[in-house]
Amino acid sequence: MTTFKDKADSRWDTGQKLTIAEILEIFTNGDLPLRFSAYDGSTAGPADAKYGLDLKTPRGTTYLVTAPGDLGMARAYVSGDLEAVGVHPGDPYEILRVMGEELHFSRPDAMTLASVMRSLGWETLRPVAPPPQETLPRWRRIAEGLRHSKSRDAEAIHHHYDVSNAFYEKVLGPSMTYTCAAYEDADRTLEQAQENKYRLVFDKLRLKEGDRLLDIGCGWGGMVRYAARRGVHVIGATLSAEQAEWAQKAIAEEGLSALAEVRHSDYRDVQETGFDAVSSIGLTEHIGVQNYPAYFGFIQSKLRDGGLFLNHCITRPDNTRSTKAGGFIDRYVFPDGELIGSGRIITDIQNVGLEVRHEENLREHYALTLAEWNKNLVEHWDECVAEVGIGTAKVWGLYLAGSRLGFERNVIQLHQVLSVKVPAGGNVGLPLRPWWVA
User: Fold this and answer.
1) What distance, in Å, lies between the first and last C-alpha atoms of the chain?
2) Cross-referenced SMART domains, in alphabetical order (predicted)?
């Protein structure tokens, strides 16, 4: 029986070139769950497959060869050199699912690799410029400052959050909430689940009229306005100028200016202290794991004795892996973003003197949230493309769908950790059992 390796060796002996499709078959042992076609006219995989990939240009091959893995695939896809067939670009979830579950690659021996490269042409190894949506690699971002310095954090936030408020309105929906929702059940709408998330945070923090809340990384001010509507005095801080402008306008339109304020500010520049509660919803991912002690120490210093702190962030399922994000996420979505397990977060919160009282994992809730954001992107695709361009819109479709798979497969999680600043003597004055409705 002739193997794909035998075919490569035979072509080497006769000086013939392999087609693009034959090369893919070599790397997958011919086990393709989707239809593949290439610019050289070659095809592979089941002819009746529901999903497929169409490699349209030699540049796409260069992207794939020079950056194997998710970064090369993203470059080829975002640039339009690789097309996903059978899915909408605003929601490529199904093809990503099939590829993740059924497409497996192996590394051929040296002779086969030599035959592959002779067929592709050595010029394929010459890197070409990535799509304009890609940011610089970590080692070249030093011009923006040291990692997690104020200047570099501001640039990282600008890259992701200052895309366009109009774009975010289409994708996130009326709540303008870009964090995991909390679903009472799977039949709830996205807006109901986001409102429930704010209710959950508000209740866990035992906020009441007249209290003072600091919301760090407040985004478009969803938590700020939720608390202010209930008589809480709130300061929100965000590094995104567009978020701050949108949030301040929304605060004014709701008549909440006497209670709420969103500052375009680094959280480290907040001078006020003595808060009854601090919320951090979706910011810890941007802090840098080595900076957790300083971050949580800052929060501890802002709380009054007996004050509560809720940290809501994406985590890894363990505390042993690399904290750095993969190539696609780091270069296209969250530059300098880092994740670690909830154990490390809890440890560092405890080490600054806060007492952890409760934690829970909302992993499945984030998968549901992301699916709804993908639906919104598909529904408003033409408007989103007009607002940010086809490349950026495709980045978002890929990012949201891939993240959904990550939460479904327990590659990433979402943890809420509740803690309290214990006064001298240890009496925090909290109920003996959880006081909120889960």
Assistant:
1) 60
2) PKS_MT (SM00828)
- For 77-102, letters b (16+ CB in 10 Å) and e give bbbbbbebeebebbbbbebbbbbeee
93, 95, 79: which is closest to 45 by C-alpha?
95
Q: What is the 3-state secondary structure (H, E, C) of 123-174?
A: HHHCCCCCCCCCCCCHHHHHHHCCCCCHHHHHHHHHHHHCCCHHHHHHHHCC
- Which residue ranges make up each domain of the chain? 4-125, 150-421
Instruction: Give me the mean pLDDT over the 134-159 stretch.
Output: 60
**CA distance linking residue 226 with residue 229, whole number of Å:** 5
Cβ atoms of 168 and 178 within 8 Å: the answer is yes
Residue 131 has pLDDT above 80, yes or no: yes
Identity at 252, one-letter amino acid code: A
Does pTM top 0.90 for this prediction?
yes
What is the DSSP-derived secondary structure letter of residue 333?
I
pLDDT digits (tens, 9 = 90+) for 156-169: 555 455 578 999 99
Q: What's the CATH class of domain 150-421?
A: alpha beta
Burial of 166 (0-12, 13-18, 19+ CB in 10 A): middle
CA 201/CA 278 separation, integer angstroms:
10
CB atoms within 10 A of CB 187: 7
Q: Under DSSP, is residue 322 helix (H, G, I), strand (E, B) or coil?
A: coil
Strands 52-55 and 275-281: unpaired
